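Structure record:
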Amino acid sequence: MIMLATIDRWLLSSMYVHRRHLSSIKNARRGIIAVTFFSIIIHCQCFCCYESNLINTPGKCFSNGMACRLINDMLFAICAILILLAVMTVFGLITISNVHHSQNRIYHSTAHVLAVKVRSDFRVAIENMLYNFVLLLTYLANGIPFYVYTLSSGTVFRKAFFDLIRC
C-alpha cells in the first residue's frame, strides 16, 4: 500500500495533466484490489506448505519441509522487500525531481514579483528551517517500519540489531 502511495505522489507531482488525472479514488481502489489479489496469489502456497501442531518446531504452525520454507522466504524477500523497495526508491526520486522542476517553473513566472519583496535574514532562516523540517518528515514514513519491528517484535529483532551494531 505504501508503494501505491509513492506512485500516487509521483502522479500528482507530474507536470503532465494526464498523469495527474490518473491519481483518483477510483484508481486507488483498483490498486487496493490488485494488491489484495497479488497478496493472495503470493501466499496461496502457505496452504500446501504449512502444518499445524508440529512437535519440536519454533512455532505451532510451521513449514513441513525445507523446500517450502525456502520458497516462502524467497517469495517474501523478493516480493515484499526487493520489489517494493526498488519501486518506492525509483518513484520517490522521480517525485523529488518533479518537485524540483515544478519549483523552477514557478520561480521563473514569479521572479519579478518576488524581487520587489525584501525579506529579513531572520525570516529566511525560519523559512529554511521549516522547509528542512518538512523535508525530514518525508523520510519518517520509510523509517517507521524499522521502529515498529524494533519495538514490537520482542527480543529477537532487538538482539539481532544489537549484534549487528557490535560488529
Q: What stands out?
A: Residues 1-117 form one domain. The helical segments are 2-13, 17-22, 25-43, 46-49, 66-116, 121-152, 155-166.
